[in-house]
Amino acid sequence: MSDGKRAASAPWIRTRLRTAPGAAVALAVLVLVTAFLAAAFPRAVDAYETEGLRHDIRGADAGRSTVEVARPQPGLELPQEQREAEARSPELTRVGKALLKALPAPLRADTSSLAYGVRTTKPVVANEPWLPRPEAKPPRLTYAAQSGLKNHATLSSGTWPATPGGVTADSRAVQGAVTEETAARLKVKVGATLALPTAAQEPITVTITGIVAPRDPQGSYWSTDPLLRSPSLVPDPTDPFPVHFWTGTVLLAEDAGPVLLSTAAEPVLFWRIPPDPSALTGPDGARLTSAIASLESGPGLLKVRAVAGDTAAVFTGLGHIVRDNVRMRDAISPVIAVAALGIGSVAAVVLVMTGALIAARRKAELALMRSRGGSLRGIGGRLLAETSVTVLPASALGLLLAVLAVGEGRWWPAALAAAGVGLLVCVALPLRTTLQHIRPTLHGAREDMVSARPSRRRTVAELTLLVLAVGAVTALRRRGTDGGGTDVLVSGAPVLVALIAALVLVRLYPLPLRLAARPMARLRGAIGFLSLARAGRSSAGGALPLLALLLALATAAFGGSVIAGIGDARDDAALTAVGADARVSGKSERTTLPDELVRAVRDLDGVRSAAPLRIEFGVTMPETAAAAGDADGSGTGDRGTDTGSGPDTGGGDAAGARATTMVGVDPASYTRLARTTGLPDFPSGLLKATGPSAPLPKGAESGPERVLPVIASPAVAARLGKEQHAIDTLSGNFKVQVVGTVERVASLASTNFLIVNSASLEERAPTTLLLTGAPDPGKLRAAADGNGEEFVVQLRSEERARYVNTPMQAGAERIYLAAVAAGAGYALLAVLLSLLQTAPERKTLLARLRTMGLTTGQGRRLLAFEATPQALLAAGGGLLTGWATIVLLSPGIDLVPLALAGVAGSDTSPVTLRADLWSLALPAAGVVALAAAVAGVQAWWASRRGSITELRAGDSR
């Protein structure tokens, strides 16, 4: 019996697929594309999170990312032989191998750059007379006997340091080497000797036998402690005056560690383990953070001490790197989740619409089967079988293509997503079809939305959904969206708003049709009345197509606004850093630009205008003004984030409250610059150099009685008030009086500044030249370098490109671009499906009306007018839904992690989401245009076929 049933099922499926191959292929293609997108999304998220984590670890300074295990020298209570044995290479190697095995997963080591040995932690003063003393301070050197020198360096001159007779703690002569950079700066030559004092006051003679060149200077072997590679000129912390001395490292022979045990330079045993991020994935971030915390102060540290000694400690900045990456990921995830849930909902609705279209086309066939005794179970089983034959292979193929397209990522989220798409289609089509045939259907029932009333069950269901959606949106609005992390309620905001709009608009849709149909009925032409009647009667205006369009338009508008906000944030950040389209300044703050340079740059092709500025940082404010600022609170809380040149003079502390930045400008040129770059309007008329502020004769000194009008930032204006205050600057001594305020000044991000007319200053030479236009970068740099001095040239375009530098940012932006494109595609598909569902009725209508004298042009206008109300409803609802979604989510969305390098909230002001007009209007206009185009194509196609073909005897249409 079962064999007979299986044999009877095969001809049915085969017959159905042969009867309607086009519908089967179209459904398979739709499922294939949807399954591909659903499976590719989680893999793409995993891919950019993985690349972001690896990029952050590889790009971090080796001193932060390397895990260093260190312990003090063996105790003096131990026998000397044991102390020396613990400092030799065999024992250090054994401990190093054991430490590698003790590393907790998922932390893995880069064994090619592993280093261990003995080093001094207290710099030793080198009194050799031939060493350089830049400010009469002798150098201070550290010494390290580190493994792997021959594997990570090449010998430039001399010989490798060795231990020919063995080295013990009592040895007083060892061999060493320095890098080429250390030799050049400290004037070390092969054969030179250095005295390393010991605790017994018997110096150890270190003979430099070789000069080496690092194979990979930026690798962890040389960069974990940069002094191994390059000496540094550092200030002396014990001297009250700003004096500097050289510090560097001398590399001893690998097995010379025991000799350092006799010194008073606090030697330690160390093992430097650089991480290998090649096997890490994005989801490993939390596990890696926990593993590092365990190593620093947890069970992992106990394992380390069991291997390296009870006094061993673990030092690393890798945990901070991973935590910064996790914070960025958590800041980006809510924005991505909005796109994912929105596009997923659109795709689900479109798939259900496809099932509804197929069910409508087969309504008569299934009604006949039902009338001849077919059971709902049998009909549903056959529909499930024939749907599964096309849907399941398409879902599997979509999963395979997603795995091939996105090569790195977890497979099970992609498999679940593709399986969900297939399951939705396999269940939705049979369920939707069989539910329509629970009761026998009567032919000819109208579904006129103007006159027909929805059933009570539908009304109750819609009201329930409406109340739940409104309650969820209200709770979201009260709670806010800035709770951090991914929240389903926040991510589902577009779905909630679109659901509310769809339910409300579907109910309100008949009202304007009813009002418009009355005056149309009195006109002589029938086109207007027929189009309104058809629009109200068509099922294309149902809640499901409208919901799909609103979801797609809201998601596309949200995604477009995010992308536009990212671009605006990068433009603003680049403008803040550079000040204009290009900037020329000196290497130091006090370097002035010669007149020849200013003229040469101003005359370059592509330069529209040039504004010279004289910027002076650290101008001391009067005591009374600073005290007043502290007293009224204006001196705190307004610290600026100076991304331009010069120090930050924000007033966050006592020193900041007494220091500000003075900017001397030419009012006319600066006003043009402010207008071109979008800065606040600059009241240049307030800085006229007249009266007491008139320009000084050449060579004259500014007197303290001169009063110069200044335009200040609000913070400085609040401190100075309206009184006159004397200030001392490098440009002269004078009094200032605030005559106006502006929020920003070009090339500065500080909130503390004074703007004066440079013509009124004693020293007027500019330190910065801001340019607008598009000068050639090569010619601009050539003009800046042609004056014999080195000047810094910054371009706004180069600064803007710098912000797109992390895989996580770039990957998230690519996903949003794909989401916008997918949303637009599904919106167009929803329009097509809604119009195709009523296409047979339209063709029949045109055929009947042509027999009554309707011309081809009138038929085209009829279909266009019929499609217009639904298209306008969807477009208007999409605009409203997109705007409401952005307003609802904008308080809790900061675009800094997506737009700029770094972590949200670090040193960058939050960038809030704003509605973008083009992102709202273009998708809505596309829906209207597509609806009109489809209606026109349908009218053209129907006019090519004769009325006899459409109107057949006995046809029920």
Q: How would you describe this protein?
A:
This protein is flat. Strands 1, 2, 3, 4, 5, 6, 7, 8, 9, 10, 11 and 12 form a twelve-stranded mixed sheet that branches. It is of the alpha+beta class. Helices cover 52% and strands 14% of the residues.
List keywords for this structure.
957 residues, disordered N terminus, disordered C terminus, 9-stranded mixed sheet, 12-stranded mixed sheet
Low-pLDDT segments: 1-10, 446-452, 626-657, 903-907, 953-957
- The chain-level mean pLDDT equals 80
Q: In which range does the helix fraction lie?
A: 40-55%
Identify the overall geometry: flat
Instruction: Report the structural category.
Output: alpha+beta
Main sheet attributes: strand count, strand direction, barrel closure: 12 strands, mixed
Distance between the termini: 41 Å
Number of strands: 21
Strand fraction equals 5-15%
What's the helix count? 33
Compact summary:
With 957 residues, the protein is an alpha+beta fold.
Task: Give the topology.
Elements: H1 2-19, H2 21-59, H3 62-65, E1 67-72, H4 80-86, H5 89-102, E2 115-120, E3 124-125, E4 140-146, H6 149-152, E5 153-158, E6 173-179, H7 180-186, E7 193-196, E8 204-214, H8 220-223, E9 232-235, E10 244-252, E11 267-273, H9 284-297, H10 299-308, E12 313-315, H11 318-361, H12 363-371, H13 376-405, H14 411-435, H15 456-479, H16 488-491, H17 493-508, H18 510-522, H19 527-537, H20 543-578, E13 582-586, H21 595-602, E14 607-620, H22 623-631, H23 654-657, E15 659-665, H24 667-677, E16 707-712, H25 714-720, E17 725-729, E18 732-741, E19 753-757, E20 768-773, H26 777-785, E21 791-795, H27 796-801, H28 807-837, H29 839-851, H30 856-889, H31 896-899, H32 917-944, H33 947-950
Parallel strand pairs: 4-10, 6-8, 15-19, 16-18
Antiparallel strand pairs: 1-11, 1-12, 2-4, 2-11, 3-4, 5-8, 6-10, 7-8, 9-10, 13-20, 13-21, 14-15, 14-20, 16-19, 17-18
Helix pairs in contact: 1-13, 2-11, 2-13, 2-14, 2-28, 5-10, 9-10, 9-11, 11-14, 11-20, 11-28, 13-14, 15-17, 17-20, 17-30, 18-19, 19-30, 20-28, 20-30, 20-32, 22-25, 28-32, 29-32, 30-32
